[in-house]
């Protein structure tokens, strides 16, 4: 029972004072001068005042509130090492059993480290989880917090936490752990393809141990070198970037005996390869309407260095003009096609015909250039079907189709073939989805026979219009019309000439994104996304090997012609191997070199400062064995409820604070001057005063 006295005046306090003050003054004056009956008058005044003030006894029925205690359980990946998971489960079960004995505690168990958010999986954020557990709890009701963790907490405050209650940490693992890890010190995000990239790394061992260790260096899954590294020192590394786009540089060291985990024995760096400017030689056989289309396109491409020559004065034009009076530049045939031909990534013959500008032997050099990995594009015009066609030279060995001698002057809409709808060069061209396509017509097609390679576009009467072929290690393209300039000029609305021409040129120069058969994989958060480009109708499923060695099958679904996609949600951070047919790809899922595995040695140091600032404690769950070996078993401290001002930790016990807060359930009122009792007391006092005054 909680008794208290309350006043509930019958009239307002100002009016009450105005009435009683003069009467009280007169009563006090009477007492001062000892007038007869002054005591009775004073007693009657007190009775009147008490009746007007109306004192009431209150009996409150209250229910004591519980203190809120948070048990934060670390479920991050570093807790899966060794016996830590077992220790955590045993400690949690023991704490719940002991806390259940105390009815004054409201226990909230919060598990942290396995959130859907990728950043919370790669960092141990126990204090963020603790803040969420206490978000709806007033400070006076917080009894304390107990953390079960390996001590590698990445959001631990430098000072006391934001609550005035004891914080206790129970550390898993043992104090005899050892580990060795490797990390990148300096890893640029970009590098030039084919050029060495300078990087630095460091191997770190428990206790800053010395010595040397072999470091295996792999690029995109292939081992390229084995380096000797001194433990504890920053080591230089040079890696040659093999290709454009995403490259994965991996460093790996062998685990040492008794090491906690080999997960951090690998370090990953993602480097985007950038190709130096591609060198293109454009040779126009004569000035024509489409010449500038190729020139403007290639000049506007920031990744291309263009060398362009137009044959304005063929050798057969002999008009007697002295050479020193000509303003034309002599065509440096030997320099371009003999001495420096290997410097070019692509050679384009634009409406070119054999007119003795190039010696016949030079065509052999060009065919050999293609066979050894070069690229050649024939932008054909009527000359290709004539007597001076380059198809009648030794270059014919590199050409995908021979002319029939026919030039078809007929209006047509360039259309994609079935192969063209799947080929990366022509797939999804703007305007190709409708029939007829949403672009202008062309009016000339050069006839060819027995085309080789892939016909991806067709012209008038379904004749081949665009051929793409491989010759040896090189590639050849042939555009069998010189009407592409109509799209550039906007005739009948124009067409996607920039998109088409650029794709043709970059496919010939082996741009990875334009490969017909290509498998790529990428990690987005904790999702592994797989993309398969193919010319087939069904590439099958993808095989995935996780960082822990587990094999998975991912079904690939058709997204558009020639493109199949698949994805899978993962729970492991690291390097995934993806295969499909004879193609393989690597992808890193999760943050690179996640903080969760940067240091896996269990420690008491990170939580010591915030725990001691709240009066709490940090202690290990597993006590060392008497033989000095690894710890065994779990030793839990006793739990003691303490007052706010009492100590909260001892050698073998931890304290949790109780609260004085309560909630009001009911109130009983007993008026002192209410009813007949109050009326009788008032009448008695007034009657006594009247009786005394009457004598």
From TrEMBL:
InterPro entries per the UniProt record, alphabetical: Class_I_gatase-like
Keywords carried by this UniProt record: Membrane, Transmembrane, Transmembrane helix
Keyword Transmembrane: yes
Lineage: superkingdom: Bacteria
TM spans (from-to): 12-32, 39-58, 672-691
Name used for this protein in its record: Glutamine amidotransferase domain-containing protein
The species this protein was found in: Mesorhizobium helmanticense
Lineage: Bacteria, Pseudomonadati, Pseudomonadota, Alphaproteobacteria, Hyphomicrobiales
């Amino acid at each position: 029972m909680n008794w208290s006295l309350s006043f509930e005046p019958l009239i307002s306090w100002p009016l009450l004072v105005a009435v009683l003050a003069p009467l009280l003054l007169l009563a006090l004056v009477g007492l001062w001068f000892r007038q007869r009956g002054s005591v009775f008058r004073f007693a009657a005044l007190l009775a009147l005042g008490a009746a007007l003030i109306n004192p009431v006894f209150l009996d409150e029925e209250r229910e004591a509130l519980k203190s809120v205690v948070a048990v934060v359980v670390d479920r991050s990946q570093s807790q899966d090492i060794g016996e830590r998971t077992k220790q955590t489960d045993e400690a949690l079960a023991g704490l719940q059993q002991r806390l259940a004995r105390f009815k004054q505690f409201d226990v909230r168990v919060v598990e942290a480290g396995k959130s859907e958010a990728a950043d919370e999986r790669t960092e141990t954020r126990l204090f963020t989880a603790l803040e969420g557990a206490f978000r709806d709890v007033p400070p006076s009701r917080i009894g304390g917090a107990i953390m079960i963790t390996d001590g590698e907490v990445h959001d631990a405050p430098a000072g006391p936490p934001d609550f005035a209650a004891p914080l206790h940490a129970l550390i898993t693992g043992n104090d005899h752990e050892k580990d060795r890890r490797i990390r990148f010190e300096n890893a640029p995000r970009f590098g030039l393809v084919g050029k060495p990239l300078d990087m630095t790394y460091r191997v770190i061992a428990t206790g800053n141990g010395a010595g040397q260790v072999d470091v295996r260096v792999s690029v995109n899954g292939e081992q390229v070198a084995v380096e000797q590294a001194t433990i504890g020192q920053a080591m230089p590394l040079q890696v040659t970037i093999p290709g454009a786009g995403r490259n994965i540089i991996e460093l790996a060291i062998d685990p040492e005996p008794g090491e906690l985990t080999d997960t951090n024995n690998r370090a990953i760096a993602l480097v985007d390869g950038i190709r130096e400017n591609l060198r293109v030689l454009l040779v126009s056989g004569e000035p024509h309407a489409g010449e500038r289309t190729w020139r403007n396109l290639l000049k506007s491409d920031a990744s291309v260095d263009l060398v362009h020559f137009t044959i304005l004065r063929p050798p057969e034009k002999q008009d007697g003009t002295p050479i020193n009076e000509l303003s034309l530049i002599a065509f440096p045939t030997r320099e371009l096609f003999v001495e420096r031909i290997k410097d070019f990534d692509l050679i384009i013959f634009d409406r070119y015909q054999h007119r003795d500008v190039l010696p016949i032997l030079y065509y052999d050099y060009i065919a050999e250039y293609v066979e050894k990995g070069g690229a050649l594009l024939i932008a054909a015009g009527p000359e290709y079907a004539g007597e001076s066609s380059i198809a009648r030279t030794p270059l014919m060995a590199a050409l995908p189709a021979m002319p029939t001698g026919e030039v078809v002057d007929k209006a047509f809409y360039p259309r994609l073939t079935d192969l063209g709808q799947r080929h990366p060069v022509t797939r999804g061209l703007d305007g190709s989805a409708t029939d007829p396509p949403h672009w202008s017509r062309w009016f000339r097609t050069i006839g060819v026979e027995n085309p080789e390679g892939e016909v991806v576009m067709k012209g008038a009467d379904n004749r081949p219009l665009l051929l793409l072929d491989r010759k040896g290690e090189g590639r050849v393209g042939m555009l069998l019309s010189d009407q592409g300039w109509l799209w550039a000029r906007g005739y009948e609305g124009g067409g996607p000439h920039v998109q088409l021409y650029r794709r043709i040129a970059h496919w010939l120069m082996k741009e990875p994104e334009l490969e017909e058969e290509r498998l790529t994989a990428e990690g987005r958060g904790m999702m592994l996304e797989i993309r398969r480009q193919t010319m087939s109708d069904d590439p099958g499923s993808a095989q995935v090997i996780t960082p822990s060695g587990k094999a998975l099958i991912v079904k690939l679904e058709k997204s558009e012609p020639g493109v199949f996609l698949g994805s899978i949600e993962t729970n492991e951070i690291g390097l995934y191997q993806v295969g499909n047919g004879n193609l393989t790809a690597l992808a890193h899922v999760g943050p690179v070199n996640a903080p969760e595995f940067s240091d896996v040695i269990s420690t008491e140091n990170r939580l010591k400062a915030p725990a001691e600032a709240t009066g709490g404690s940090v202690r290990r769950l597993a006590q060392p064995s008497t033989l000095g070996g690894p710890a065994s078993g779990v030793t839990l401290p006793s739990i003691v409820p303490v007052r706010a001002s009492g100590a909260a930790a001892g050698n073998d016990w931890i304290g949790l604070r109780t609260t004085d807060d309560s909630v009001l359930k009911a109130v009983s009122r007993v008026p002192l001057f209410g009813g007949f009792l109050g009326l009788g007391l008032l009448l008695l006092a007034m009657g006594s005063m009247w009786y005394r005054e009457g004598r």
